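Work Package 4 report. The design task specified in the project plan requires that, given a folded chain encoded as structure tokens, an amino acid be chosen for each position. We show below one input record used in the internal validation round.
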């Protein structure tokens, strides 16, 4: 029997720390459920002490996810730990992850603490976290630049205090594989009580080495990897979950452990995270990029036709590709629709919600004959965001676009119960429509990102638009999908403006002291 490699996903916490990747509570729950379907072992849902919004999001994920352990991050401070404990109260299985910096530069410049004091804080934090759960993880932040002797001392002390997982973060992405792997082996060998805890790693990608460093650590005894979908995360991101998992699965000759993930869910998760955050996946991204399994050269195509193994080391289906098949159409009935939506993980909360979503599906099927899973996912996004922020709705949109003429757009929206109509010219139909909406909602927000993705193939495919708006330091993403990209753009803009009007403020105190 091989060891189990625990997959700890931090898309909802470290991933969300990517500038512009903030997610609403309901979006976090959707991603949490998708991670649970993929059988991720631990889901780090957020940092409850960071804000009321973060607290509520962790609480909502803890209540919604039943099969994975839900984790909350906290500094080594009583108030953070209590907040995490409270947020995780409803979880079937919970973990508190507490951290304090251990590198000389962080201790001196950021914490202004002596090493002995740092050990005291760490031990106290772990003991307090154990009051809430017997599943406690400790991270010496910036371990990649910490002194090994000091790491041994603090880790030994926190194991004695009750930590069950020791996570070694390469916070600034400074490590290289051979050295990082050796550090993990040394820590396991040198710490006298190391057999009482699981060693984990958390690598950032500043030098493009996050996955390589994580795998080197696994070869040297780490049995948990912290990672994110699509490698999302602070600055250059974290180790990408899909790459770590598929490397371990594909190279079982090298790794003496295996994960229990359902890898066929990888692509769905990747698309969901990309659509919610507005961070596109580059076409040549390993595993989940559009070209990851595409063979362009004639020699490769010929080989693959003769035997796929000539050029393919993994099967595309094993990570969820080729799920892009027609599933439903205009003649599909309510039962077929409901059962496919359920398979995709969507739970209808009422008959009314099912009726409304089925009506939208029929409208879409009238415009587009073949409805793929990706179309249904976009429908779920639309229904979820409507339920969350119903106060602004697109009622009508008319554009005039003609060669040699200035494009113009007239848009009618409903804000609460009032219908408003506005018109504007613009450099194109999309620009004119967004300006017309802005003339009505007056958000004064700055457009930071506008991106269009085709959800499936063909000119009748739905375009999925992501709009990122910034208002007084607050950043939100809005999504919209439609077979007409001007309408998709208007929906995305309205979705983003609606989010700006909700009070959820985000900040991340781990960037501050302690
Ligand atoms: O990168 C890091 O050090 C972190 C810790 C909180 C684990 O994200
Ligand atoms: Zn991190």
């Amino acid at each position: 029997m091989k060891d189990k490699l625990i997959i700890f996903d931090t898309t909802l916490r470290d991933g969300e720390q990517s500038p512009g990747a903030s997610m609403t509570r309901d979006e976090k729950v959707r991603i949490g459920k998708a991670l649970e379907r993929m059988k991720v072992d631990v889901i780090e849902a957020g940092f409850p002490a960071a804000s009321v919004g973060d607290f509520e999001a962790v609480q909502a994920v803890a209540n919604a996810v039943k099969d994975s352990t839900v984790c909350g991050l906290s500094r080594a401070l009583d108030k953070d730990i209590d907040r995490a404990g409270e947020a995780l109260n409803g979880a079937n299985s919970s973990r508190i992850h507490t951290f304090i910096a251990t590198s000389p530069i962080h201790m001196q410049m950021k914490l202004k603490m002596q090493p002995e004091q740092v050990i005291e804080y760490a031990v106290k934090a772990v003991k307090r976290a154990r009051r809430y759960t017997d599943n406690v993880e400790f991270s010496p932040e910036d371990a990649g630049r910490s002194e090994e002797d000091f790491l041994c001392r603090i880790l030994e002390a926190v194991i004695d205090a009750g930590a069950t997982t020791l996570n070694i973060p390469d916070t600034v992405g400074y490590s290289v594989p051979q050295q990082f792997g050796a550090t993990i082996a040394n820590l396991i060998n040198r710490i006298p009580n190391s057999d009482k805890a699981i060693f984990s790693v958390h690598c950032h990608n500043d030098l493009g080495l996050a996955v390589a460093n994580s795998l080197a650590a696994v070869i040297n005894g780490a049995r948990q990897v912290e990672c994110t979908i699509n490698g999302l995360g602070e600055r250059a991101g974290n180790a990408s979950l899909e790459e770590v998992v598929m490397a371990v699965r594909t190279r079982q000759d090298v790794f003496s452990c295996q994960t229990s993930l359902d890898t066929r869910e990888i692509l769905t998760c990747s698309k969901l995270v990309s659509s919610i955050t507005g961070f596109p996946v580059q076409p040549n991204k390993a595993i989940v990029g559009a070209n990851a399994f595409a063979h362009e050269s004639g020699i490769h195509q010929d080989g693959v036709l003769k035997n796929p193994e000539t050029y393919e080391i993994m099967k595309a289906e094993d990570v969820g590709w080729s799920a892009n098949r027609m599933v439903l159409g205009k003649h599909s009935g309510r039962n077929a629709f409901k059962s496919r939506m359920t398979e995709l993980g969507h739970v209808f909360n009422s008959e009314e919600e099912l009726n409304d979503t089925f009506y939208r599906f029929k409208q879409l099927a009238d415009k587009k004959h073949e409805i793929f899973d990706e179309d249904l996912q976009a429908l779920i996004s639309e229904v979820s965001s409507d339920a969350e922020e119903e106060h602004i709705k697109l009622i009508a949109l008319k554009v005039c676009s003609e060669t040699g003429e200035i494009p113009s757009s007239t848009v009618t929206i409903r804000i609460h119960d009032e219908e408003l109509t506005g018109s504007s010219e613009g450099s194109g139909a999309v620009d004119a429509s967004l300006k017309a909406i802005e003339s009505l909602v007056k958000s004064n927000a700055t457009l930071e990102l506008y991106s269009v993705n085709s959800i499936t193939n063909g000119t009748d495919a739905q375009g999925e638009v992501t709009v990122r708006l910034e208002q007084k330091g607050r950043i939100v993403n809005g999504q919209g999908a439609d077979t007409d990209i001007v309408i998709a753009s208007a929906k995305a803009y309205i979705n983003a403006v609606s989010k700006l009007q909700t009070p959820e403020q985000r900040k991340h105190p781990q960037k501050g002291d302690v």
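The longest strand covers residues 392-400. Validation will be extended to a larger panel in the next phase.
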